[in-house]
Amino acid sequence: MDVRAHMSMLFHLDKCIGCHTCSIACKNLWTDRKGAEYMWWNNVETRPGMGYPTGWEDQEHYRGGWKRTQPGAIELRLHTRPQGLANLFYNPALPSLEDYYEPFTFRYEDLFNAPESDDQPTARPVSMITGEPIQIEAGPNWDDDLSGSNLYAKNDPNLKGLPAEVQAQLHEIERVVMNYLPRICNHCLNPACVAACPSGAIYKRAEDGVVLVNENKCKAWRMCVAACPYKKVYYNWATGKSEKCILCFPRLETGQAPACAHSCVGRIRYMGVLLYDADRIPEAATVPDDELVDAQLEAILDPFDPEVIAAARANGIDDAWIEAAQRSPVYHFLKTWGLALPLHPEYRTMAMMFYIPPLSPVVSVVEQGLVKLDLPPERVDFELFHRLDTARMPLEYLANLFAAGDAERIRRILRKMLAVRIYKRRESVDGAVDAATLELVREAGLSPEAVEAIYRLTTQPTLEERFVLPPYHREQAIEAWNDPLEHKGTTGLGFLQPPKRGE
Ligand code: SF4
Ligand code: SF4
């Protein structure tokens, strides 16, 4: 057992209000500069929809992630090594500017400098590439809230393979439904971006699993951009280097949550340590599609298990990190209560950011212009529990997003979420929980104590409960790489890389 620690984020999609505060916090902090105009390390998509860059989930087009070639073996979908060599100077699977959008700004000075006139001056949009006026035709959240539209929702790659009636259900005008999907780099355990980089410039930090690009080593081959199935590496045209989400590691190292998580208005984001067994990665990444989620969950270890604790200590993991793993909200949502899943496990990158799928409204009918549930009021709660098949967001659709097509897994999670709601409603509205509700909770695989804990962590968590961040002990991490005595002489001179004679 090779125990490692990973900082992971969890997104509770039921709570995301699509305000994009997270994206703006990230933009202002990390990508507000030349060459990074079109980069959205954090973006929020409306589902069903096309996402950003357009149709990023269509791997037949973009060829991202891994594919299983035979039992126990996977290879990059992008290319084999000889093909990679042949395509070194021409990468046919890269997204183009049209797949993102032409970055633009507005000529704000026109507002101040316009001559006096009867007309209100306007700030014209101009391209940030050419400086010329442009007609804006796309943006990072262009299809925001346009679920049900023929242009966006109907072309969602996740609808592929769904029965015609399920697809039709998503577009019936009275049943149109949508939810938001915030995305950052998943800091995967089996990252395709790392595997595809010919320069060895991308690496996964040992101490917390953050995947980073070494800007000094990057030679702009852009294989990482093509190989990441989530399209979360971007090419900076000004510096000629690739860039990606760094999980705000400078903030983590100083005990602060990433900016996207800290600023999240819906408080949908949680952060915590997960302990995992690095020895299990090769097997977990190569099992058949329907075993992928279980294999990944098995690789994530129980931080209360004495054997795991001993192996973690033997690997140099600090006790404070082990204790943080025990209090990790991500661990509890993911493993203790079984409520969360990785995004698109079938890409086989073993994504380490997790999502709680959204509970969508249930089917209703329109009567005399009013939308009503087609159920008698006294049956509503219990019937809903068994009628997830008629939820407006089809289980099959959510399964394509989070469970490699396994709708039963989504059903199990949504039943748990419904059970929590029904239990708490009985308690707060009726003042008591009846036997039928207790049976419902048991049937969903929960206990009243678990319901209370889920309810509390979902609705009323403090900042410290949402973000359980251990001390980083940078002094130890740096000593593992550099000899502190070697740097003693440069203290105070401010060298990041001291000059060497002859260079
Ligand atoms: S999501 Fe992040 S770590 Fe995973 S393949 Fe893409 S860039 Fe690499
Ligand atoms: S800030 Fe939070 S609630 Fe708002 S869009 Fe981002 S993830 Fe959703």
Give keywords.
binds iron/sulfur cluster; nitrate reductase domain fold; single chain; 503 residues; alpha+beta; 33% helix; two-stranded antiparallel ribbon
Outline the structure in words.
It is found in: Cell envelope. GO terms for molecular function: 4 iron, 4 sulfur cluster binding; electron transfer activity; metal ion binding; nitrate reductase activity. Its EC number is 1.7.99.4. Its main location: other. With 503 residues, the protein is of the alpha+beta class. Among the domains are: 102-137, no CATH class; 268-466, nitrate reductase domain fold (Orthogonal Bundle). The protein is 33% helix and 14% strand. It has 22 helices and 16 strands. It has helices at 21-30, 59-62, 81-86, 109-113, 164-171, 192-196, 223-227, 249-253, 259-263, 281-284, 292-299, 306-314, 319-326, 329-336, 380-386, 395-402, 407-430, 435-443, 448-459, 463-466, 474-481, 484-488; strands spanning 3-12, 43-47, 66-70, 73-76, 104-106, 125-127, 179-183, 202-204, 211-213, 233-236, 241-244, 269-277, 341-342, 354-356, 364-367, 370-373. The chain has a four-stranded mixed beta sheet with strand order 12-1-14-13. Strands 2-7 form a two-stranded antiparallel sheet. The protein has a two-stranded antiparallel sheet with strand order 3-4. A hairpin with a 2-residue loop joins strand 3 and strand 4. The radius of gyration is 25 Å and the shape is globular. It starts with a strand and ends in a 15-residue tail after the last helix. The mean pLDDT is 90. It binds iron/sulfur cluster (SF4) (2 copies). Residues 185-188, 191-193, 211, 228, 230, 232-233, 244, 349 line the site of one iron/sulfur cluster.
